[in-house]
Amino acid sequence: MNTEKKEPTESTESTEKTDIKFMKAALKQAEKAIAIGEVPIGAVIVCEGKIIARGYNRRNTDKTTLAHAEIACIRKACKKTGDWRLEGCTLYCTLEPCQMCAGAIIQSRIDRVVIGTTSPKSGCGGTLLNILQNPDFNHQADVRYGILREECTEILQRFFKDLRKRNKERKKMLRMQAAPQSET
């Protein structure tokens, strides 16, 4: 396992403000995922200072493992640009990409990735593996970590806390429904 990360590059105040602005847009996408009962992961792709694609997690809704926020964004950006190469683009994602998404980011030649919070169970932007900056690949992305980390972490924690509560209530309801049947 490669847990080594390249140090984030120093950014100017302008880049910091821009990164915050676009990470907020990615967080809005994550809220859309929550609204349909999905794990709140959002992403946007920016080219020349403008959002060209948006996406959010839809795995359960679409019933496919491919419905990750980053993949949806890449598909939309490729369609918008008319090219599979997304050179000159920056991807903002609320959660560190998994191996599939990190591979798609490299394959699509995205130059820069801004990550809200790390993923200790599937992060391939430096936590478990560093696919995004692996020098053995023909492309590497510049990566910036921790933009709006607290907000990106909080939305995930809130979702899973609510999910655990709903599951506990559902189990309690099932036990209550089963109890009268066992007395007869």
Key terms:
5 helices, about 180 residues, alpha/beta, disordered N terminus, 5-stranded mixed beta sheet
Secondary-structure blueprint of this entry?
Elements: H1 13-35, E1 42-47, E2 50-56, H2 59-62, H3 69-81, E3 89-95, H4 99-107, E4 112-117, E5 142-145, H5 149-183
Parallel strand pairs: 3-4, 4-5
Antiparallel strand pairs: 1-2, 1-3
Helix pairs in contact: 1-5
What does it look like?
This protein has about 180 residues and is α/β, with parallel strands linked by helices. It has 5 helices and 5 strands, in the order αββααβαββα. It has helices at about 15-35, 60, 70-80, 100-105, 150-184; strands at about 40-45, 50-55, 90-95, 110-115, 140-145. It has a 5-stranded mixed beta sheet with strand order 2-1-3-4-5. Helix 1 (about 15-35) packs parallel to helix 5 (about 150-184). It starts with 12 loop residues before the first helix and ends with a helix. The relative contact order is 0.15.
